[in-house]
Amino acid sequence: MLFSVLRSEWVKNIFRVIGAYGIIVVFAQDIGVRTGCRQAMLTQHPIVQLLIFISVAFSVTDDFGQSFTGAFIYFVLKYFVSRGVTNDVCFPTDCEIRSCGEEN
Fold first, then answer.
1. Could you tell me if residue 25 is inside a domain?
2. Which of 13, 66, 83, 96 could lock onto 92 through a cystine, CB 3.0 to 4.6 A?
3. Stated pTM of the model
4. Sign of CA dihedral 92, 96, 102, 103
5. CA-only gyration radius of the chain, Å
């Protein structure tokens, strides 16, 4: 049943639209457009992140299995390998990477 739903063109198009949104957000931030406060709060929820990550990957691969696997790897690396410790900035310097998780 799940696989037949995922093969639906309607569902694929929903994933492509959400994926396009994810790509647009990154581009907007790259050119200096600020994210709305409630928009940022919504996208910080792990379930919403999972949906957007899978959708962005699907819009590129057109394959749900690859999309889910890529998102799964991201969350494993972030929450298990890194133990949930994150950098303070999105693009850390080498020094910031080496000191990540250390108390100042």
1. yes
2. 96
3. 0.78
4. negative
5. 16
